[in-house]
Amino acid sequence: MTNIAQYAFTSKNKVTVLSDGSKLSSSNFDNKCKFKIFRFDQIKFLRKRIKSSFAHNFLKENNIDLIFFDSWKSLESLGIDTDAKKICLVHGNEILNLRKKDRILNSFNKADLIIFNSNYTKNKTIKNFNSTKKIEYKIIYPAFIKNISKNNINKKKYDLCTVARLEYRKGHHLVFEAMSILRNKHNIILKYAILGDGPELSRLKDLVIRNSLHGQVEFINQYHPIGKIFKNSSVHIMPTLTTPESVEGFGISNIEAASYGLPCIVSNSGGTPESLGDNGIIVKENNIRELVSAIINIFKNYKTYSKKSYIFSSNFESKKKIKEYLNTI
Q1: Contact between 149 and 231 (Cβ < 8 Å)
Q2: Structure pTM?
């Protein structure tokens, strides 16, 4: 949503954003933006009502062409007829909640267009939500690349890196297992950088100790510049898993890593494979043997994969992507 707003504005559109308050300090970010951002910091019960009321008044008083909704919940709050075209984004996890099937369908039926972040998300939605109304949809991979950053492939601090929220489904623990096998059976010692924060942090630190990976794994604060991690790493690895409550709808960080020339190793879970071209290796979900083999093979053919990463990431150049979003209707 941030990218859509920013690049829509630089494409000379008038942009207004309605957003919940941020857990982080957002004033500096908001002040740098030249378009209007209205944030709502009230408790959840009041916030939804206040934001909805504000949106209704705003739509009455302004001539709006296009509205992007970040999820079905935002669209659900829209209780006003408007000539503006309504586009709802679908990311993946929200469509697993079948207990809210009727609410989600009612929201989708308000939209003029649904944008899915992958073919996987689209197919899963169609399977889980049988709508009586024909829903128009489009698939747009949600990655915006500002610059392709040519990198020195020889001098890297880390062999592997993962830039992602620290959740079980991201598969960090599987990388630990693979690293242990590589060290114990192949005498290959790798350095692994993990950037992010989340509920798995303490468990992952404990697993580092259990797997005797002291000195091989470094946890990096989520506020550290992502670009610096990619510049100092050789391969981005994210062997995602599917759980009953959670699935990876796409995998934006794989595209971002590719723009720095990093090949990627991913699993076949959810929409993750769609964030890879021929610039990396896809392994079976939760398959340590394949993961170990992929790490060995990707370094054997590193220069070839790295060149292909630059080519693949060029498909996500920001000016191209914003046209996809703004020209959907």
Answers
A1: yes
A2: 0.91
Distance CA 325, CA 138 (A): 10
For residue 213, the enclosing domain spans 158-314
Q: Are 162 and 136 members of one domain?
A: no
Question: Are 68 and 140 spatial neighbours (Cβ–Cβ below 8 Å)?
Answer: no
Of 64, 121, 58, 131, the C-alpha closest to 89 is 121
Token pair for residue 295? 């790490």
Distance, CA of 148 to CA of 19 (rounded, Å) = 30
* Contact yes or no for 195/229 (Cβ under 8 A): yes
In a domain, 61, yes or no: yes
**To the nearest whole number, what is the mean pLDDT of the chain?**
92
Reported as a single tens digit per residue, the pLDDT across 164-217 is 999 999 999 999 999 999 999 999 999 999 999 999 999 999 999 999 999 999
Residue 153 located in a structural domain? no
Within this chain, do residues 178 and 283 fall inside the same structural domain, yes or no?
yes
Neighbours of 172 (CB within 10 A): 27
